[in-house]
Amino acid sequence: MSHQHTGQRELFESRPQWVEDDDRRGTVATVVLPDGVDKPLDYLVPEQLAGDVEPGRRVRVPLGRANRLRLAYCVAVRHGELPQTPLKSVAGVEDEQPLLSRRMLELTAWMAERWMARWGEVLEAVLPAGVRLSRKVRVAPLLVATGALPARKPTPAQAKVLAAATQPQTADALAEATGASRAVVHRLVKLGLLAAAGEVERPRQAAAVERPRVNHDRPDELSPAQADALEAIRRPMREARHETVVLFGVTGSGKTEVYLQAVEETITYGRQAIVLVPEISLTPQTCDRFRARFGAVAVLHSHLTPAERHAQWREIAAGRVGVVVGARSAVFAPTPRLGLIVIDEEHESSFKQGTAPRYHARDVAEWIARAENVPLVLGSATPSLETFARCLAGDWRMCRLPGRVGGSQLPAVITVDLRDRSSRSKGAVSPRLAAGIRWALESGGQVMLLLNRRGFATHVQCQGCGHTVRCPQCDLALTLHQPGNRGICHGCGLVSRLPADCPECHAPGLVHRGTGTQRLEEQIRGTFPDAAVARMDTDTMRSRGSHERTLDAFRDRRIDILVGTQMIAKGLDFPAVMLVGVVNADAALHLADFRAAERTCQLVTQVAGRSGRGPLGGRVVVQTSTPDHPAIRAAAAHDYEAFVRNELPVREALLYPPYGSIVRFVVRSLDDRAAADWTGHIADRLRAAAAGDAAIRILGPAPAPIERLRDRFRWHVQVHGPDGPALRDLVRRATAGLKTPDTIAWIIDVDPVEML
């Protein structure tokens, strides 16, 4: 896979077929290809397709010397004088109706510039695969006796199709049999000369899932802080203007009720709302709450089949659904009457796309909200530092919800210092945490235990020589999974049976080091044999509906202790949870990532907030080897703002986000030296382009923190600067005309959230 900014251009060296036009006037379509060509291309629109080629539809166009037909997106159409250089012609039209509105075309063009991606790959990203699939339509000619005669004489292509349409058949079959384009067939359907006889492979509606009704009745009144936050959202809504409102509220402060009433107001205006949540595991509970209040809710997430996603897409586009709930890509839902966008847990890194185009849903949502003059609501107990800085600068409005609703108090947090020998035990659970679990169970409560490491043991090591068994394809230790004594690489997914003896010194008896969720679950079952224990991580949540089943069982009190990774840490509301245990708060604190402390503080704060939401109250036990770290101290005190006050000056001094922008290059190759040399070449070009600009800082080249992944060596270089647009312009100048060797693949990540 080559990088998207290779400077590759289509030369059009072969002379296309051309019909001379004396007045040199006609219609030209500008198209964008999904891949392979960076810039938009112009094509002549033949007269017979003039009524069907329009922005937002896909067309088929000839490309290259062989004139191979390629599917492309039409992004603009202009009428007037033709260019002097002959143009190739559009060969056909793929879609009966535009798939993308003009607003969406503007958005995708902006996204391509903002995140330095190809416009075509952005267009592919915003349209679900089910929507992009060609519809197959059975067609049959109308009988002449009905009076369905042409208004004008059919073109030769149309006449050929009509002659061939003696039996019902698909549009594709008709087009293939006659050599005509699908657009000709659909044009005849529009003219009434062919009649649609139903649809084949009609996308089915998303299956309705009967779920326990969540009691989420409208409260009699809001707290003063909730009422102020709701009014801050209603005001721009009434005035039909954009404003970004940030709800900074402690866990359990009633942010969801504010969302619900803001959406309710939106619907009374006859408009639609989009609600984004970060995790698929949170979607069912969020949907339950919105269904309990509003009835029909459209759901968009990655676990839907293409047909189900297409069915939801059509319902939304037709305006028949007032509320859309989903993960990151739901921000592109085709709402014709958009009135509000809500992003819950806005700090979550899952709102940043990990593959090209590497967009951030928060920034996309702000663009859409501005363009549509509607409010954008961001909510979190731990807002990202980027969001905090925008509020401090006055760009966005922050509404604080400092207390829990209903009079419940934030749980007491006990920090267990694992450096103290008396705090240790043979397993992962300290005596203090074990006592807390016992207290919660004896009091009739439930327990949640967070360990953000899956598997049985984090690595397997020889006691004799210290050798650690590693993945042969990655720079990562194999994680032990049971049963079967399997070593699984969490980088590439390679599964292998672990050896009985050390591969290096051949000493017998490899030992298991570190604890993952699987091992923790086993220890908890052994220590508390009478408790019902379940585990929630990516290993146990693979089957469709597994998130819902596990959370429903926990809600119904069929599970006493829930062990899980970060997917249990946020957004879940279970009043019976009396104890939350953070087994290893330092798991990600010391990673080679400037956001490591921020993420740790957010994760611990969020999971601590799952405790004490009911009448029995709750406690939190945090096990850590660095209890004095600002991130741990702030989380233990339920004082996220203290961490922000400590961290922002550090970021500002180093020109890290939110006070600067970063563009990261990651180079991959089977050959380590080739990757290093190419990264050095990029760094040299960047330094040459930045010559004389003291504000620009270039770090690298250097091996990536994970040096080898999927058998590819990884090197990276970072460019830092105070101004994002200027930094992206510098990168464009530095990479213009860059020809990538066949042995190299590389990507650009603008404002990355993951630095490994």
Task: Label this structure with key terms.
756 residues; alpha/beta; GIY-YIG endonuclease; Rossmann fold; seven-stranded parallel sheet; six-stranded parallel sheet; 29% helix; disordered N terminus
Describe the structure.
This protein is α/β, with parallel strands linked by helices and 756 residues long. It contains 20 helices and 30 strands. Strands 11-12-10-13-14-9-15 form a seven-stranded parallel β-sheet, with helices on both faces. α16 packs antiparallel against α18. It is globular, with a radius of gyration of 29 Å. The N terminus is likely disordered.
Number of strands: 30
Oligomeric description of these chains:
single chain
N- to C-terminal distance: 20 Å
Q: Taking Cα atoms only, what radius of gyration do you get, to the nearest Å? A: 29 Å
Largest sheet: 7 strands, parallel
Describe the strand arrangement of the main beta sheet, using strand numbers.
11-12-10-13-14-9-15
Mean pLDDT: 86
Main CATH class of the largest domain: Alpha Beta
Shape: globular
The number of helices is 20
Q: What's the architecture of the largest domain, going by CATH?
A: 3-Layer(aba) Sandwich
Count of structural domains = 6
Tell me the β content: 15-25%
Q: Within the CATH hierarchy, at the fold level, what is the topology of the largest domain?
A: Rossmann fold
Residue windows where pLDDT falls under 50 for at least 5 positions: 1-22, 135-148, 196-213
Helix coverage percent:
25-40%
CATH superfamily of the largest domain: P-loop containing nucleotide triphosphate hydrolases
**Class per helix and strand makeup:** alpha/beta
